Batch of 3 targets.
Target 1
Amino acid sequence: MNERIRVLSAFAKSFAIAEAIHLSRVHNRTLSLDEIGEIHDQKFAELIVRECIAIAEHFSDGNEQDQFGRTLYHYRADIGKEIEQYFSMSFQ
C-alpha cells in the first residue's frame, strides 16, 4: 500500500475513533463496529477525493490554452466541483 494512503487511512481511523468517543460522551450513544467502520470509510474516501482535487488544481497551473485562449488555471474551481459532484461529496 502506498505510504500516503496509509497516512490518510490512519487519519480516518483516528477521526472515526474520536467521533465514536464524542457520540458516546455527548449523546450517550455507543456505536457498533460497523458504524465506526462506516465513519472511517466515509472520512477515508473524503480525504482521497480532497487529495485528488489538490493534485488536479496543482497541475492546472499549466500554460496550455483551450479554443478560447484560456489556460487550465481558469478552470481550477470547476475541476474541484466536478470531482466533488462525481463522488457525490460536499466539503465544508
Note: The chain is about 70% helix and 0% strand.
Target 2
Amino acid sequence: MKALSRNRVKQQAEKFIVENYNELKYETFNENLEEISQQVVAMMLYALMLHGYGETRLKRVFGWFVDVLNMPAVFGQAPSTEHCMKKLHDEFGIDFDKIKPKVEKWEGK
C-alpha cells in the first residue's frame, strides 16, 4: 500500500473540514454551552452579591433564572435569548453590545 503524500493528506483533511464544518461547529458549541452558561450566571450573581445581595436573594434570583430556562413553549415558542435581549433593550435601554469578555491568550500546549 502506497503512503499518501503530505499534500494529499492536507487536501483530504481540508475536504473533510469543509464537508463537516457546520456539524463540527454545532458539536463544539454544544459541548461548551453548559459551561459558558454557568459562568455567565455566576458572574451575574457575583455582581449582585457585590451590590449587597445575600444568600436568600441570590438563591431567589438564581431560581427565577432556572425557571425561565425551563419555561415551556407557549404557542409553540419558548423565550429565546434574542427575544429577551430585544425586550430588555427596548424597554430599559440595556445595551448588550457593551459586554466584551476578556479572553486570555491560549498557548495551545
Note: The mean pLDDT is 86.
Target 3
Amino acid sequence: MIRSQSGSLCADAKSIIEQFRNLTDKDVEALEERKSILLNALNNFNKRLESLPSWDRDALISLFYREMRDTLFSFQILLEMIRTHEKNAPTGEQNQEILHELQKNIQGIATF
C-alpha cells in the first residue's frame, strides 16, 4: 500500500476517487463559487491567526500544512489514475506498462 509522506494510507485517495466519480454537472458548475468561498475562508483564517501567540500560531499553521500536503497527495493519486485511464491500453502488456508508470509516478508523488 502506498503511503504519503506523513505515513497515512491511500484510503483518503480512494474516498476522493469515489467523490470524483459521483460528481454531478451541478457540482462542477459551482467551481467559481467554491473558489470564492475558499479564498474568503483562507483570508479570514490568516487574520484570526494574528491574534495567537507565536508558538500556537506556528503549530496551527504546521498542522494545517500537513493536512493540506496529505490532501494534495490524495488528489495527485487521482490525477495519475485519470491520466493512466485515458491511455485505454487494450493489451495485457500495455496494461502492465501503464501500471508500472503509475507506480513510478505515485512513488515520485510520495516523496512530496
Note: The first helix runs from residue 11 to 21.
